[in-house]
Amino acid sequence: MVDGLRRARAGAARVLARVTGEALGPYQSAVVRIGFAGTWLFFLLREYPNRHELYGPDGPWSWELARQLVESNHAFTVLLWSDSVLWFETVYLAAVLASALLMLGWRTRATSVVFMAGVLSLQNRSVFMGDGGDNVIHLMAIYLVLTRCAQVWSLDARRARLRGSASAGAAGPVLWGVLGAVSAYGALTGRFGLGWSAAFTALWVAAALWWMAGRSEGLAAGEGAGRSEGRALLDVLANAVHNAGMLVIMAEVCLIYATAGWYKVQGSRWQDGTALYYPLGLDYFSPWPGLSALLAGSGTLVMLLTYGTVVLQVAFPFTVFHRRIKNVLLGVMMLEHAGIAVLLGLPFFSLAMIAADAVFLPTGFLVGVGAVAGRLRRRPGAGVASAGAPPVALPAPSRDADPDPAAAVGPDAGPDPAAAAGSR
């Protein structure tokens, strides 16, 4: 029994050391960041001509109705600070810019906060707009703030390799200064509410401490001293928060599929295998009427797809710790979402779900995709991106790391130490 307790303590110590010693799943978190920021960016750009009807002054959900709802549910939105068209345009363009910068991984600590504020502000302004994917983006925008999602495949990681720190330059402090002023204004005027004021203040204080620790470490390095204790402590805390955030994202994906699958099991149309037939006959969900009619005309295919959807959604949460089965189901579900985008005309819902599914993609697969993309980028004639820039080796996962995201507390495989030293 004593030996068992010792082994348990040693195992717990190893888990704790890994959870606090590195930000797990750098490739998975990068794909989630790129996927959700890109999905929201493409949505905002596609709906730019309709923005006033969706979230602005010309929408059916008026500014006054939105104000009354927010007062009752205490949701976050800066669009209700003013009913002027100029303010709406400013917020909308800020959301577009933040999405683009987060997708590229530029100053991700700050841009992830602005991205979250833009998503919540627009969606909470008109709560009846969306197709289901907006709920996933809503949640993931909050979770991404907690993660160090720019360790790889980002401008921050590139800057860390070239300069030794992703926080180098004046852009970061200036950006956080602006965000601090906006946060202070919202808190002092009571527009944020107590909870959101505390959250934004905590984020601002954490960013200030990180910047000061980076400055002191840079000065100490110039004097030949080692790494500062303050920066080491902040790294431990940041790793723990990142890994907790990744675990929450993984749990959220499993919860989405589990609840969707078990609700379907209770429906009579899903039980008799005809549920898929009905949306295929609706004009709203038939961007390709001929293709929808062809599919709806085969009762066997409709039944197989209907039952297959239920089986996949119910089974997936139980397979996340079995690498091979999980990877097979993951590929099938991504293909299913691609089919939903084409057949039912729900591209942004499908993109959001595919981006969420990406948290379970194997590290080896993502590293391979990154290597192929790097070779294509460096090919002669590939464009301006390859001109004048020396080839940079992709960060490789640690040799002893299990390449499956669900094998540890979160996705694993450590990034390049030089890139991780200063990047988010």
| Biggest sheet overview | none
Percent of residues in helices: 55-70%
End-to-end distance, in Å? 43 Å
| Integer average pLDDT | 84
How many helix segments? 19
Radius of gyration over C-alpha positions, nearest whole angstrom = 23 Å
Q: What's this model, at a glance?
A:
With 424 residues, the protein is an all-alpha fold. Helix content is 68%, strand content 0%.
Describe this protein's structure.
The protein is mainly α and 424 residues long. The protein has 19 helices and no strands. The chain has helices at residues 2-21, 26-46, 51-54, 63-73, 85-104, 108-125, 133-146, 155-163, 171-188, 193-222, 229-265, 268-271, 277-280, 289-296, 299-319, 323-343, 347-357, 363-377, 417-420. The longest helix is centred in the middle third of the chain and has 37 residues, at 229-265. The two termini are 43 Å apart.
List keywords for this structure.
424 residues, mainly alpha, 19 helices, globular, disordered C terminus
Topology (elements, then pairings):
Layout: H1 2-21, H2 26-46, H3 51-54, H4 63-73, H5 85-104, H6 108-125, H7 133-146, H8 155-163, H9 171-188, H10 193-222, H11 229-265, H12 268-271, H13 277-280, H14 289-296, H15 299-319, H16 323-343, H17 347-357, H18 363-377, H19 417-420
